[in-house]
Design brief:
It contains one helix and six strands. It is mainly beta and 87 residues long. β1 and β2 form a beta hairpin. The two termini are 28 Å apart. The relative contact order is 0.28.
Length: 87
């Protein structure tokens, strides 16, 4: 698979590190029950189709990218710089 870095151009996926889905997670409060923490830590949506993902170009320019990729075919549909990542 090849990813289009907006700074370096199209590169092999081995230059990048997958950082996860580009979604906001709602962290439970410290006193939340075990079920809330289990869901937060272990249960994630796994949709088929287009998904926004965060990738870092570790072996290149070091930029963080938001990549749109089809999870069924692995087709990369686009990438842009992830200017703000809020946790």
């Amino acid at each position: 698979m090849r990813l289009p870095c907006p700074i370096c151009g199209v590169r092999d996926v081995r230059e990048f590190y997958y950082q996860g889905a580009a979604v906001m997670l709602n962290r439970p409060s410290a006193d939340a029950g075990e079920a809330a923490w289990d869901e937060y830590l272990h249960l994630r949506e796994n949709p088929a189709g287009d998904l926004e993902e965060l990738w870092s170009h570790d072996a290149g320019c070091g930029a963080w990218l938001k990549v749109v990729r089809d999870t069924v075919t692995h087709e990369v549909k686009g990438a842009e710089l992830a200017l703000e990542v809020t946790r």
